[in-house]
Amino acid sequence: MLLLQFSTSHYCRKARLALGYKKINYQVENLTPGLHILKLKPLTGLTTLPVLLPQVEGQPEAIADSTQIFKFLEGYCPSPSLLLPDERQQKEAWMLEDWLDESIGTATRFIYYDFRAGAGKQIDSSLMSQMVINVVRRQYGITRETVELAQSRMAIALDVLSSKWHLREYLVGDCPSVADIAAAALLSPLALIPEYRQGYPWLFERIVEIHKICGEPPPPGLDKL
Q1: What average pLDDT score do residues 192-214 get?
Q2: Separation between Cα atoms, residue 182 and residue 134, nearest integer Å
Q3: Continuous segment of H or E residues that includes residue 63
Q4: Does the N-terminal or the C-terminal CB of the chain have fewer CB atoms within 10 Å?
């Protein structure tokens, strides 16, 4: 299998965690932002990553979107399962995954790229890095006002997750689920931001643990935990 990705994308990390959890051998191809459209349009008709190419006879040529990749992998390799045996718990897990994917992952992006353009510029102050950051900021409309909204949304999200993940190993049920994978990936960029690292140590302990379970190296900022 081949995963088309941006190497720094937290949504692509989400797909890698799922592949790792399933213990599926795969390769990655890192695409260049902007030029990636030339490769994706003929494959999916879309312009977003990740995209998984199963390269297996009888399977789809390409699966776009991390959630759809989850669902494909579950059918292709049912064990170990990312679905919980209890139907009610699994519905909750999908609700959390969708909320994290559609709302909180976006908030993370706004907060992270605002940080990288300001206080976190020293992480990589190279011209190329700053050009990419500025392109992302323009593309998504990252402004002071939208960042403040994202920070407010993130504060609520972390309060919700605290009640579920702070004292429990998994968000739902007694084993990893799509909710844990989504949370571990989509919140991982916050590890480079001191106020989040200091304010929510339990969050990053959970993120590291899920990465270990999935056989994926911890994200930047957590590689020494």
Answers
A1: 95
A2: 26
A3: strand 63-64
A4: C
